[in-house]
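Much of what follows relies on a compact textual record of a protein's fold. A record is reproduced here so that you can trace the correspondence yourselves:

. . .
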Amino acid sequence: MEYGFTQKLFGYFYHSSCMKQAAKQKLNINKKAIKQEYVSIMKNAKDIGKSRLMSSYCMGAYFIALNRKTPLSPEACYELYKDGLSSNKLFHIAVGNANSYLDKKKMPDRLKWSADSHLHRYENDWVVDIIEGTPQDDFELGYDYHTCGICNLCRDEDCFELAKYLCRMDYVLADMMQMKLIRTKTIAEGADSCDFRYGRK
């Protein structure tokens, strides 16, 4: 895919967050090698157009690069990633909060995104159904992902086993936004879909 401004911006954001955390932990890491590997993965990745989840696609690419170019275990890489992003104040601002995320005014746009995703314009992009919670439900907003871009990218890069670690980041993000996330299955762990159900804490 084209390695443009958006891919560079997300790469810089993830890289700076993780490297600051690595410095705190006094880890001996080759920053340049990780960055170069990220660029290589993104250029080799299948195009997903102007996907709403480009940030997640880039997150997946950076996590793969981090695993390839450090001696750390996948678990240690995940902890580095989680702690790096969690300590980044800008990241907290960017993800928002429960009120902004669960705003019902966003539903029409989300439903359009869902319909567009089922057109399968891009092989590696996410395919999703949106579920609006009712007063009888224990959630306000749900997603059923039938195709996952991160899983596709990890599969293409012959490291599908790494996808499950990035699934755990969804709980970290939900916690940042003061939301609860209930999920019973993921594609990364062999299921046919991922069922996300978000509500307020």
Observations:
- The two ends are 39 Å apart (CA to CA).
- The chain has ten helices and four strands.
- The chain has a mean pLDDT of 96.
- The longest helix spans residues 5-24.
